[in-house]
Amino acid sequence: MTALLRYQAGLLLRSQRWLAPLLLYAAFVGVGVRAGEPVLGALGFTAAALLPVTAWAVRICLTQEPSAARSVVAAAAGRARAHLAAFLVGAAWPVLVGAVAVLGVTALGDRRGVPAPAALVTGLLAVLTCALTGAAVGVLTSRPFLGAPGWSVTALALGSLLAFVTTGSPAKHAMTALVAGARATTADPPWLACAGALLLAGATAALACRATARLE
Question: Is the dihedral of CA 188, 189, 191, 196 positive or negative?
């Protein structure tokens, strides 16, 4: 699996397709977060912006290989493992970017009533929750479920929106906790939401790996 992860990461870096989602996230955070504003509200926006970005990043990694190369890798390592490696690479780098953003927002935000460690934990859990939820959206709107780019991108945008408004969504639960904490100036780390997002991402990834082994 380590070799597959390095291969997928190398493909992503050389293709420079990571640049567009990264710039989009930087634009979201740069426009939506201001120095000196309440830290929990800023962390909520920082985490929420990562959901569609992660969905996009996962879709990029799952579709970046040419068909011939994908067939060779599948023959050598198995389609399911190759698909899983692409999913993990696509989901991992937005989490790292989000973690860096949380550090910056915590340092620049107004932390009155909220200790820095509590703000960091809350922000990191919210970032992880939104990133994992976005990863689930990305894997369900990519191959082997949706092959046509037009339908895939449309479903990705719609799925990202629904993830914020659907009852029971881990991302919505995390955002609700951060909004409530911002009003009360008390950090409430979204542990349950993060656990739910982890289960959701794991289940969707397992489903996609089984589907790609059968359908492709």
Answer: positive
**Which one-letter amino acid corresponds to residue 103?**
L
DSSP for 1-62, please give it: -HHHHHHHHHHHHHHTTTHHHHHHHHHHHHHH--TTSBHHHHHHHHHHTHHHHHHHHHHHHH
Whose tokens are 């397992």? That residue is 206
CA distance 104 to 102: 5
Q: Answer whether 48's CB lies under 8 Å from 164's CB.
A: yes
Which residue reads 């939401």 in tokens? 193
- Note whether 102 and 168 are within 8 A (CB): no
DSSP 104: H
Q: Omega before 144 cis (within 30°)?
A: yes
Where are the alpha helices (H) located in the chain, listed in sequence order? 2-15, 19-32, 39-48, 50-63, 67-77, 79-108, 116-140, 149-165, 170-184, 191-215
Q: What is the pLDDT along the chain (216 residues), one digit of tens a residue?
A: 788 888 888 888 888 888 999 999 999 888 878 777 778 888 888 999 999 999 999 999 998 877 777 777 777 777 888 888 999 999 999 999 999 999 988 888 777 777 888 889 998 999 999 999 999 999 999 888 877 788 888 999 999 999 988 888 999 988 888 877 666 567 778 899 999 999 999 999 999 988 887 766
Q: Which of 162, 181, 183 is nearest to 123 (CA)?
A: 181
Q: Which amino acid appears at position 25 of this protein?
A: Y
